[in-house]
Design goal:
Number of strands: 13
Bound molecules: adenosine monophosphate
CATH superfamily of the largest domain: ATP-grasp fold, B domain
Radius of gyration: 20 Å
CATH topology of the largest domain: D-amino Acid Aminotransferase, Chain A, domain 1
Largest sheet: 5 strands, antiparallel
Strand order of the largest sheet: 11-10-9-12-13
Strand content: 15-25%
Number of domains: 3
Shape: globular
Length: 341
């Protein structure tokens, strides 16, 4: 029997509940400090207790996973806590395409793939001296928006960067990425591409609630102006969104283009869940500032099924369950190599 394994964080509850509902064995790689939390949930069959998630790289842990024919479901915590080299060195099969995770973590590669997919993007700004409108300054990797800041000029950029360095939030030699800031309605578009059916499914949309930028909007401008702290974009939680139906055609087109570009550029392509993240402006024009090449935590809001999946499936279908179903089908067809790397 195949087992589904993941790291205890991010969307592990959803992933393992979905796997259990599909009749698969579930394994949680769990940090000692969180054991008490995760033991509350009856659908986790086995725990691999670790001091640090980096122990997944050790032979001992990989052996336990392999004894169970486990497939690891990668999520944001894996990417945040391991380097691309470390992820790529994991011998246990990883659901989807582990090679594309490097393209998510590296801003230059990320932009290259988004460009190849023809995604409409905010303009990148190549150096602080070229800042002539509002920009957002980002760090590498899935830092959850921590340490991001906005700037309106080179002087403003230097002041805020130095402040974050002195606070120890960013390091002096960290390469920061500068991008035009686009105002509008944020939308995080969640998809699943099935390599077995060769079909793209649109799962849902979420919005992220980010502190403390969101808190700033709740205080009067007078207090905002007195606030000297650099606000950050640390994700606290997510909420659901449905789109105007007239926007769906473009949503599917962007997903199809992304899948097609990934097939060309990062074999075996964008298999499994992914997310295109961006903003709709006043003309409902979408600008994409990011993608995630794996399940996003925003799918946690649809543990009982999403509005768009209720159109495709006559049963409650979470993203975790959808992944497990693909694994189950691949196992039956003897095609696990098609859904893992
Ligand atoms: P990211 O790590 O790129 O997903 O960005 C984190 C957060 O910063 C997003 O969830 C948005 O709130 C905000 N953000 C990022 N890029 C832009 C942009 N170009 N324009 C407006 N907001 C942005």
């Amino acid at each position: 029997m195949t087992a589904i394994a993941t790291l205890g964080s991010h969307c592990s509850l959803q992933v393992l509940k979905g796997a259990k509902d599909e009749g698969l064995k579930t394994i949680l790689v769990c940090e000692k400090k969180r054991e008490k939390l995760y033991k509350r949930f009856p659908f986790i069959d086995e725990f691999i207790i670790v001091d640090s998630f980096l122990e997944v790289l050790d032979n001992n842990c990989q052996q336990k996973l392999d004894e169970n024919n486990a497939i690891i479901i990668p999520h944001g915590t894996l990417i945040a806590q391991m380097s691309s080299e470390q992820i790529e060195s994991i011998k246990t099969p990883i659901f989807g395409n582990k090679w594309i995770l490097r393209w998510e973590s590296d801003r230059v590669k990320k932009e290259e793939l988004m460009r190849a997919a023809n995604l409409p993007m905010p303009k990148p700004v190549s150096s602080p001296s070229e800042i002539n409108s509002l920009v957002i300054v980002k760090r590498q990797g899935a830092a959850g928006g921590k340490g991001y800041f906005m700037a309106a000029s080179e002087e403003d950029y230097n002041k805020k960067r130095n402040e974050l360095i002195s606070q120890g939030v960013i390091s002096k030699d960290e390469i920061l990425y500068i991008q035009e800031y686009v105002g509008g309605v944020l939308a995080y578009l969640q998809y699943f591409y099935s390599p077995l059916n060769e079909e793209l499914e649109f799962f849902g949309v979420d919005q992220r609630h980010e502190s403390d930028i969101e808190g700033l909007a709740r205080i009067p401008s007078e207090q905002q102006l007195k606030n000297n702290k650099v606000p950050s974009f640390n994700v606290i939680g997510n909420s659901p969104l449905v789109l105007r139906e007239s926007l769906l055609e473009q949503v599917y087109a962007m997903g199809d283009n992304f899948v097609e570009a990934a097939k060309r550029m990062v074999e075996p392509g964008m298999n499994g869940p992914f997310c295109i993240e961006g903003v709709y402006d006043e003309n409902a024009k979408f600008s994409s500032f990011e993608f995630s090449a794996r399940i996003v935590a925003g799918t946690n809001i649809y543990m009982d099924g999403s509005p768009y999946y209720s159109l495709l499936y006559n049963e409650p279908m979470s993203m975790g369950k959808r992944i497990a179903r693909e694994v189950k089908k691949a196992t039956e067809l003897n095609k696990l190599d098609k859904v893992t790397t």
